From TrEMBL:
Keywords: Membrane, Transmembrane, Transmembrane helix. The chain crosses the membrane at residues 40-62, 68-88. It comes from the Bacteria. This is VanZ family protein. It comes from Rhodococcus artemisiae.
Length: 98
């Protein structure tokens, strides 16, 4: 979705794209933790992935532009995904000890 041509991306209210970025990266971070990647590895690979997608948007002919703010939204999403994964993990772990 991050590299689809600009003409095919639906538009919405201002900053909707930032929410979309955050949600996508929150899901990726949660899945990464579910796959038992450490939080550090999760942040590292998703930060690199986010930068890579923004650079590709700015350099390949998909009629889109790269944005540092989109990357910041990606990182906010990673933090949200990690927090949710930690909360779920604590809940699951506390349920097993009862």
């Amino acid at each position: 979705m991050l590299l689809t041509p600009g003409g095919t991306v639906p538009s919405g209210p201002p900053h909707t794209d930032k929410v979309t970025h955050a949600l996508m990266f929150a899901v990726l971070a949660y899945c990464s933790r579910y796959a038992r990647f450490s939080p550090i590895v999760t942040v590292a690979w998703l930060a690199v992935y986010g930068i890579l997608t923004e650079v590709l948007q700015a350099t390949i002919a998909v009629r889109r532009s790269g944005s540092i703010w989109d990357w910041c939204a990606d990182l906010v999403g990673v933090a949200i995904g990690l927090a949710i994964a930690a909360a779920v993990g604590r809940r699951v772990h506390s349920g097993r000890t009862k």
